[in-house]
Design a protein that fits this description.
Blueprint lengths: L1 H7 L16 E9 L5 E10 L10 H5 L4 H10 L2 E4 L5 E3 L10 E9 L3 H19 L2 E8 L2 H10 L7 E3 L4 H5 L6 H6 L10 H7 L20 E6 L2 E7 L9 H10 L4
Parallel strand pairs: 5-6, 6-7
Antiparallel strand pairs: 1-2, 3-4, 3-7, 5-8, 8-9
Helix pairs in contact: 4-8
Protein name: Thioredoxin-like protein AAED1, chloroplastic
Organism: Urochloa decumbens
């Protein structure tokens, strides 16, 4: 049966305490869907933070409350992540043309997640189509740049398109799911069994060493976003582990929007 074999591909990790189950909350952003899978605006949501953490949210997330539909690009633009190639910090707004440039921003779970190795391999194999459409590919994962380089070297994946978000700043800003239930018990996760051959191929050179040292990172879910300049054209939050955005949907958005 496929299920036991697939389960064997998951790295053994000691589960962290549910640090985000306390009564302290911060405002994040919820995506409000419209027909066709696109997202026209955002609304504030309450997402739990570790017990003892101040309730104040980041300035960029708070400022987006006044006009969330037009300012999510501004909010994300100020988030600092790290280049896997150099280890140096970089802001999202410096990764693509903020006026007319198009970008696909794929937020993986973490660099030690086998399902994310599969997603990264699909993105790598699709990069030529993104390039032909004039779209910048940006893949982000939870962990440090050295963990990102493990995935890049062993999968392989082009380093220049890979970034690390060890503090999960972008994930929190975008309101991506986090928690034990989402990670291990969400019904959406069974979709991965339909891609078992792809998963098996992607993890041929897998190593658990790519897993974040901060084990809370293994409870983070990812998502997929398409921007034209600062405008959010498409957004999808993964409901569970391996519940990735349909790539055809992402490509349809990229190919239908004129690129200057």
């Amino acid at each position: 049966m496929a299920a036991p074999v697939a389960a064997s591909l998951l790295p053994y990790v000691s589960l962290p305490p549910l640090a985000r189950s306390g009564a302290t909350y911060s405002r994040g952003l919820d995506l409000v869907s419209l027909p066709g899978g696109r997202y026209r605006h955002l609304r504030l949501r309450r997402s739990p933070l570790p017990a003892g953490t101040a309730a104040a949210s980041s300035p960029s997330a708070s400022s987006s409350a006044s006009d969330p539909g037009s300012s999510i690009g501004d909010a994300l633009g100020g988030v600092e992540i790290y280049s896997a190639a150099t280890g140096e910090p970089v802001l999202f707004r410096d990764l693509w043309d903020q006026n007319e440039g198009m970008a696909v921003v794929a937020l993986l779970r973490h660099f030690g997640c086998p399902c994310c190795w599969e997603l990264a391999s699909v993105l790598r194999d699709t990069k030529e189509r993104f390039d032909s459409a004039g779209v910048k590919l940006i893949a982000v994962g939870v962990g440090t740049p050295d963990k990102a380089r493990i995935l890049a070297e062993r999968l392989p994946f082009p380093l220049e398109y890979l970034y690390a978000d060890p503090e999960r700043k972008a994930y929190d800003l975008l309101g991506l799911y986090f928690g034990l239930g989402r990670t291990f018990f969400n019904p959406a996760s069974v979709k991965v069994f339909s891609r078992f051959d792809s998963l098996k191929e992607a993890v041929k050179n897998y190593t658990i060493e790519a897993t974040p040292d901060d084990r809370t990172g293994v409870l983070q879910q990812g998502g997929m976003f398409v921007f034209k300049g600062k405008e959010l054209l498409y957004a999808r939050k993964d409901e569970g582990t391996g519940d990735h955005a349909p790539l055809d949907d992402v490509l349809n958005i990229c190919c239908k929007v004129p690129v200057s």
